[in-house]
Structures are given as structure tokens and as C-alpha cells.
Amino acid sequence: MTAPAQTPDPVSAPAAAARRLVEARYGEGLAAVLGGSVAGGRFTARSDLDIAVLLPEGGRGRRETVRHEGRCAEVFLYAGSVPLHDPHGLAAERCREARELIAAGPAPLTDAERDDSRYLLTDLAEDLADTAGPGQDPHEQLALADRTLREAAHLLSAVRGAWSGAGKWLPRRLRAADPVLGAALLDGHLAVARHGEPGPLCAAAHTVLGLVGGPLREGLVHTRGPGTAGG
Predict the structure, then answer these.
(1) pLDDT at 187 (0 to 100)
(2) What is the 8-class DSSP label of residue 34?
(3) pTM recorded for the entire structure
(4) Boundaries of every domain in the chain
(5) Which CATH number does 12-104 carry?
(6) Of 66-75, 110-119, 152-161, 169-178, the least confident
(7) Which of 16, 31, 64, 71 is an S-S bond match for 90, by CB 3.0 to 4.6 Å?
(8) Could you please report the per-residue DSSP string of 35-90?
């Protein structure tokens, strides 16, 4: 009987390449892990290899970007990883601790942090709404949309007890925190970028504000510690 065809494992080939790199360049390491796109299941032909190496005591901490077997690799600390070389179980323990930390989520916002975020998002959404219609500077509009998306994503992630992200991780973390409202924010940002239409993003931002008591303008008091200069 012919054995059934096996589905290729998208992690195995890049993991094997990463393992060869670790063995060739970082043989002194106590442990190594592979993270990034491979661990997250998003590896493509152009993806880098994101590798973390645990050095022995006294080793020189650093970040290196190297090319190995035709692929760029970055060596740095990364959570949520696939173990490559872990003879002492140190990487497995660190990964377990990191996963627990990620699963626990960030600390809740303090009342002051929440109100500061409410105030900023309110201000940004109002300024963005004012860019509707002809004659507006598209560069200013897009800059406001970027800030509005980031602040709304930060506040929504905090409300949902989830970690926020930056760069390509902003939409990934945002969708994970709230698939429906996160998608509304991202689609609203696209509406500004593609059509110069700020309405959908402003509406989604106000929905986020509704989760924390609504827009906040009047009545916010900022407090500063002793010796802090005003601005």
C-alpha cells in the first residue's frame, strides 16, 4: 500500500537552516530559539530568520544581522519561539515564562493613563474629522489617521487586556484583541489612505471611546511630579 502523502511542514526547512547557522556561528551558546514568522506560521520565501541565542555567563550580549545559505538572519531576543538547541533546558524554561507573561496580558491602565488616552484619542478623532471634504492637505490627513489608529489600537488593546504592537504587529495584535472593532479601525484607516474619507475611522475611534466612558475634553487634569518642567 502506498503511504499517504505527507503535508510539508512549513517550519521544518527554515528551522533546519537556522539550526545549521547556530551550530556554525554560535556553538558556544547554551540555548537557541527560533521565532518571528516561522514560529508564527507566516514564513515566506523572503522572511528573515529571527534567532535568539542564550550565551554563557560573561558572554557579550549583542544583536547581529548575518546572511546564511542565501537568507538574512537576525540574532536577538524573541518570545514565543521554537527551540533549536537546548541541552540544559534553559530555552524551554524562558519560553515557558515568556508565554505565561504574554498569556497574562499587560497590567491594566491606571485611571490617569486611561483618561490621558481618552483625551488624546478624542482630540485626534476631532482633528481627523475636520479633514473631511475638498481642499484638505492629504499629508496632514494621513498623518492624523496614523496617530488615530495607533492611539485607538493602544486603548482598545488595553481594554481587552491584550498586548498592543507596532509596525506590522499593530494590525496582528489589534485583530487578536478584538476581531470586529479591530477590523473596523484598520478598514477605516484604509478608507483614509485610499479615498481620503475619515468618517469610518472616526466612527470606529468613537466606538473605542465608548468602551471607556466616551470622549474626554473638558475636566482633564494633568499632574506632574516635583521638579518636572512644564511644556
Answers:
(1) 98
(2) E
(3) 0.66
(4) 12-104, 111-210
(5) 3.30.460.10
(6) 66-75
(7) 31
(8) EHHHHHT---TTPPEEEEEEPPTT-----EEEEETTEEEEE---SS-EEEE-TTSH
